[in-house]
Sequence to fold (577 residues):
Amino acid sequence: MDFLTTYQKWINSDALSDADKDELKSIESDKKELEDRFYRDLEFGTAGMRGILGIGTNRINIYNVRHATAGVAAYVNKEGQESANKGVLIGYDTRIMSREFAEETAKVLSAAGIKVYLFDTVHSVPEVSFGIRELGCAAGVMITASHNPKEYNGYKVYGPDGGQLPPEAVQIVIDEMNNTEIFDVKYSDLDKSIKNGTIEIVGPELNEKFLQVVMTQQLNPDAVFAVSDTFKLIYTPFHGTGSRPVQEILKRIGFKHVLVVKEQDTEDGNFPTVKSPNPENKEGFTIAIEMAKENDVDVIFGTDPDCDRVGVVVRDADGVYRTLTGNQTGALLVDYILRSKQEQGTLPADGVVIKTIVTTELAAKIAESYGMEIMNVFTGFKYIGEKMTEFAEKKNHTYLIGFEESYGYLVGTHARDKDGVVASMLIAEMAAYYKTKGKSLYEAMEDIYKKYGYFLEKTNAYTMPGKDGMERMASILSGLRENKPETVNGLDVVKTTDYLTQTITYSDGNTEPLTGLPKSNVLRYDLSDGKSYFILRPSGTEPKIKLYMGTSSDSAKSAEEILDGIAKDAEKQFGLV
Fold:
């Protein structure tokens, strides 16, 4: 079915409201927009769905949400009545339409005979992941598009362990969606379902249990109390769900002077004070940095709308406020956690640090220096969560921390996804700990570099929207597989790892199979200096192809020069710009 035929099917459907039909009529003469909205179905993948808000098959709207929920209902009901009785927990963030999508999800599940737990107000990703396990649910759904711009929303699905669905479960969802007409999905009346108890509203009692569990991850509570009378922090929730849990946890562990960016402490899906609510971007911290200058503050941090990512800004020795990368914050946390446990005699012999394949190798150096194992998994926190569940079942490792370069961290086993609440607590505590040692977080980072070498990583993202963009990304990756690059930035490519074909190819032509990781459309190239590498992968959540680069050197300047050279050569060779 071509996109124009699909458009006509939608605009003529009785299922659409008059407002939805008016939206489609307003673009009837814009062929490019029609094609982008209707050339494909919004893909349901391992992390669920994410897309631009609007009416169409390639947009996120109540119809696609209902359709996906029909698939989730099939997954839950496949295990029988016991699974249906365990129910599904539904959370949502502050984005446009998040509450509406959460209610539509609840209505479809209720109509399918499944018990529903619906949060009474906005909640963070970690609270949903924790809540699934605490309530003993069969699954969970979180309505969020994480750190994407305001035009986006999304639909994440979790299994009973609080982690994102495994591939076999995702396939059940997809198969049901393929076998169900999008406008034929049945749904109940919300008020009646709440009245008869099919849908149960979850109140603040679960919030309290979550906070109590998070507090158990403190490492040096005495450090907080030692500086609490004078130490100041600045926090911003970027108009998201972090405001309540983060402010409360900081208060409970003893911080007396937490300054909150009031302009950004509003639940507003338009994110009016930032271009994008992404804590990776320094632009979002503009107001906070001005506050820091006025209040003599050493550290600032902020969480994204669903509070699963944390960005940090620190003051350097010259008084300049600098953003830490996700890799730098992760390295600081790894060193702080392992150092604290070693000092306290609680560092387990079977301890493990988990990171993704695109995350800094500095974490591996730090972990190994403490005698801890480092494990690499694919990009996406679901893979870290899977390892955690495996450890719990086999009891063969002790999980210490998992993190990814994109500003996501988890300490503790209370959740199976990134947790901006526990990360915020530990970042604040870590800043207090170093304050008692006469150091700032910036100086602590410099100490790590002096000990292990200057590791630098950089990620460039190249936006390729629409159908043409999808085809272009596919062409770039297939072209690289057909014609392997031999040199980049004057360095030979000595090793190529193809995670899709599961092969490792060396420059001398020898090959060997890749083991231990599932298939994924990712290419990694290791270079002849023995320190530099780059990785290419299409984003799983946005129309982008990402170039990850890393190296280590004896200075920041030389490391930056290496990565700049790799980026420029790769862009030219591979047609990224």
